[in-house]
Write a structure and sequence with these properties.
Elements: E1 25-30, H1 35-50, E2 58-64, H2 70-85, H3 99-106, E3 109-113, H4 119-131, H5 133-136, E4 142-146, H6 153-162, E5 169-171, E6 174-176, E7 178-183, H7 190-201, E8 209-212, H8 219-229, E9 243-251, H9 260-264, H10 267-285, H11 294-306, E10 316-319, E11 321-326, E12 329-331, E13 349-355, E14 365-371, E15 378-385, E16 405-411, E17 415-423, E18 431-439, H12 440-443, H13 453-461, H14 470-487, E19 497-499, H15 505-512, H16 522-525
Helix pairs in contact: 1-3, 7-14, 10-11, 10-14, 11-14
Bound molecules: NADP nicotinamide-adenine-dinucleotide phosphate (NAP).
């Protein structure tokens, strides 16, 4: 749908700077026949091709263990795109596969079959890259994207290095880069994250490693810095003098679906906190960087994480869903899901309170919660400002003031809203809470997006701003490690929340016991997020 509003002209701004050109490169995709490649990476690449952001020349090299021809691989992905684009328009695209855009990808699709742990595979990949050199007029820049289970991250990185494929290439005076993209999980706890980092860094340089956190592909998340630092309005009140507390929520209505075995080994805390929710928190709480280069920004995010003390288990609530009803449909308990142990103690919900011990935030609690089979699907960052003094309204009919909330709606309806009190029309002094709302869809044309477009483009451009650095990953695990340790010692009373509810009752106590605060009610927020 076309936007109903037009962004306000900036009289002092020149034309927007052109997008940085993307250098010719090959994308070597490990896990070419996997779910991740089909559902997310191929549509994202296709959308980039539609926007003219796939470089020329470009080579798309798939690596997986089943026997396929390049033609089979290409046909399979094309069929998926066709189903996607002829479907319900969920990805925002026009119906039908755009032949010109697909042509930019299909022109050089190569399939290399082999086992990730077999050195012969890496010789074949080297040959496939070499075979492109004529089209590229010499050496080839390459992104190696590891869309594979995490047990393969280190073996692949080392095999690539041993085969000389990660060495930057020289061709006369020109140099050609090699980059490696790693999908989460980046470890399962602090020791394993440190081992993973040390292992990757023994094969690659940090500036070659792109650790993807797909939450950062979301438009509103990227715009947090613009909201904070491009507006004179917010930064002066963005601190402990004005902010009472912050709530970060990632609520899902889905359960574990087909991912029972993955979830049994992971749980809500490992799956969501050290990466996604801490990423949102660090963007909300970081100091202004000196510039917009990747390391300046990542330094500031890392400083926030370093200023958070490790969390005490008493400040964390975990839950597991029972039977219930989600969006009107009967829902099974977690313990009855496929590939889940009938006595599983894995948490499907977690809520925690933490504090950032620095000048800006000392004394301001940050409450984070995430869970499955909840009443509403939404991801948001809600900033609650301190209450105005009531004295002025003492002898009026005003008995209480509603709080001021600034809410960054991350999903599903991307936007920003501000809640404040106004006087109700009429002779008496009565106050009413109202909301000003901005929705991206009202102001900007919607581009088809599966959330990986910006991230893929950034990798090809060598911009690491939106990617996790080793120290950020390790800080995330350090913060939650005492909780992981404590949870190995006791048996929780599970299940403890009904599917389709707001989560376990104890999560409410977490806020109530400190200043009588309460969570923003998910059920009431459902209307905001549609
Ligand atoms: N899927 C998602 O929606 C999603 C979302 C976010 C992040 N991720 C992350 O992305 C990565 C990939 O996920 P995925 O679900 O696509 O993984 P996947 O399907 O389990 O594996 C990717 C592909 O690698 C193949 N493979 C497995 N072992 C191999 C070997 N030894 N040699 C060669 N090929 C081998 C698999 O074949 P088989 O199927 O025959 O084993 C599959 O085709 C994971 O790190 C995951 O955590 C996934």
């Amino acid at each position: 749908m076309a936007p109903t509003r037009r962004p306000i002209d900036h009289p002092c701004c020149e034309e927007a700077a052109p997008v940085h050109p993307v250098e010719a490169c090959a994308l070597v995709l490990f896990g070419a026949l996997g779910d991740m490649t089909r559902r997310l990476l191929t549509p994202a690449l296709y959308h980039l091709a539609q926007s003219g952001l796939v470089p020329t020349p470009f080579a798309f090299i798939g690596v997986d263990h089943l026997e396929r021809t390049a033609h089979d691989w290409s046909e399979g992905l094309h069929a998926f795109l066709e189903a996607l684009t002829n479907g319900n328009g969920e990805d925002g695209s026009e119906p039908g596969v755009d032949a010109a855009a697909w042509g930019k990808l299909a022109v050089a699709m190569v399939y290399v079959q082999g086992d990730f742990e077999d050195p012969a595979l890496y010789r074949a990949i080297g040959e496939a890259l070499q075979a492109q050199s004529q089209r590229f007029g010499g050496a080839v820049n390459a992104v190696f994207y590891l869309a594979v289970p995490d047990r393969f991250f280190c073996p692949i990185a080392h095999q690539l290095a041993a085969a000389g494929l990660t060495r930057d290439q020289k061709d006369g005076a020109r140099s050609f880069w090699r980059r490696v993209v790693v999908e989460k999980p980046f470890g399962h706890d602090l020791p394993s994250a440190k081992t993973l980092d040390a292992n990757l860094l023994s094969a690659l340089r940090e500036d070659q490693i792109f650790r993807i956190d797909h939450f950062l592909g979301k438009e509103t998340v990227q715009s947090i810095m613009a909201l904070r630092f491009a507006n004179g309005l917010f930064e002066p009140i963005w601190n402990r003098d004005r902010i009472d507390h912050v709530q970060i929520t990632a609520a899902e209505t889905v359960g574990v679906e087909t991912r029972g075995s993955f979830y049994e080994a992971t749980g809500a805390l490992r799956d969501m906190l050290p990466n996604h929710l801490f990423t949102l928190l660090s963007m909300v709480a970081m100091e202004p960087p000196v510039g917009f280069d990747a390391n300046a920004i990542r330094d500031k995010k890392a400083e926030v994480l370093a200023a958070i003390s490790s969390i005490a288990p008493k400040d964390v609530v975990r839950g597991q869903y029972d039977a219930g009803s989600v969006l009107g449909e009967a829902a099974l308990p977690y313990r009855s899901e496929a590939k889940v142990a009938p006595d599983s103690n894995v948490e499907t919900y977690v809520a925690m309170r933490l504090e950032i011990d620095n000048w800006r935030w000392a004394g301001v609690p940050f409450y984070l919660r995430t869970g499955k089979h909840l009443s509403t699907r939404l991801t948001e960052i809600a900033i609650r400002f301190k209450q105005a003094p009531h004295a002025l309204f003492q002898n009026t009919s005003v008995s209480c003031l509603t709080p001021n909330w600034l809410v960054i709606h991350v999903a599903p309806k991307e936007g920003i809203s501000l809640q404040f009190d106004v006087k109700e029309p009429g002779p008496e002094i009565r106050l009413a809470g109202v909301k000003m709302e901005f929705h991206y869809a009202d102001w900007f044309e919607r581009h088809a997006n599966v959330g990986y477009e910006t991230l893929l483009l950034d990798v090809m451009q060598g911009d690491q701003t939106l990617f996790m650095r080793a120290d950020m990953v390790e800080q995330g695990w350090r913060i939650v490690q005492p909780v992981l340790d404590a949870w190995t010692q006791d048996r929780p009373q599970f299940p403890n929340y009904a599917s389709g509810s707001e989560g376990p009752a104890a999560a409410a106590d977490l806020l109530e016991r400190q200043g009588g605060r309460s969570w923003r009610p998910l059920t009431e927020l459902a209307g905001d997020s549609k």
